[in-house]
Amino acid sequence: MKIITTLLFTLSVFACGYAQQTAKTGKWTVNKIHLQGDEKFDYLFSDDVSNRLYVSHGSIVQVVDEVKGVLAGTITGMNGVHGIAIAQGLGKGFITSGKDSSVTVFDTKTLGVITRMKITGVGPDAILFDPFSQKVFVYNGKSNNATVIDAKTNKIVATITLPGKPEFSVTDGKGKVYVNMEDKSEIVLINATTNAVEQVWPLAPGEEPSGLALDNESHRLFSACGNKLMVVVNALTGKVITTLPIGENTDGAAFDPALKLAYSSNGDSTMTIIKSDESGKFTIVDNLKTQSGAKTIAVNKLTHHVYLSAASYEAPKDGQKPKIIPGSFVVLEIIPD
Description:
The strands form 7 sheets. A 5-stranded antiparallel sheet has the order 1-2-29-28-27, with no helix packed on it. It is 0% helix and 55% strand. A hairpin with a 3-residue loop joins strand 20 (220-225) and strand 21. By secondary structure, the chain is mainly beta. It folds into 2 domains: 10-34 and 208-314 and 326-337, YVTN repeat-like/Quinoprotein amine dehydrogenase (Methylamine Dehydrogenase, Chain H); 39-166, YVTN repeat-like/Quinoprotein amine dehydrogenase (Methylamine Dehydrogenase, Chain H).
């Protein structure tokens, strides 16, 4: 069932020292797609061509029809799902399972499992398919390395030692792969052909970077950092261009190249929206009200719809982490004006 709520949000203006401009108030439609299950959740991935949204949810991945807003299928049998990557043109996808350090390969047409494979690291989290090299990069958060898989053969071809704990990753589609180092406040540039680290760039004053997005046309990286900053980096030189304020407890970033909008999904019930242009000006468009804990994000670059996972939580007891209220798990679908 798809429940639709239309909300009108006012503009939030932050004090920012780099070419900030005031933008008009935007109107955003927020849809709630209710999904069954009360397990923990992490990344989402939008397969823009097929209009399918892959949603991590504990031991399963739920596949949502983005047009109808309903569940289209479920991939089961995982253990602590984190990230999903789709290999366009190969008809297969890859899912990381952190609890047993494995990757599940599945058929995107049938959603059937092709194989499950152990990887050369511990605690696989983020995952990326690079179309240039036809490789899948699996980022292992507990062993500070990346397992590289040939997407055609499902064979491991390399293990890359990293200088810190890897988080989200993006590719320029031309042989360069970028990944945040959460505990080092750095971005690492990987050569997708040689499977080697080429550059390590500092993100100061950004700390604890998680979400990462790329404006490939303007060669700008957007790194969402835990100290409430979006750090904009030149993807060719590694130079920090500017920083912009975002919400608290962020865990995701996305970029819509057609709209020139960068998004930061924040755990404090906000989504920061930043407009960029070719002249190097950055405008905070809005600090959109979302839902508590909605801190991972995906964007469909063709429809421009933005997706965030969220749930309601019980009050914490005896210092324990709060539990999800049964039946409250949703995907927020945010549609720009």
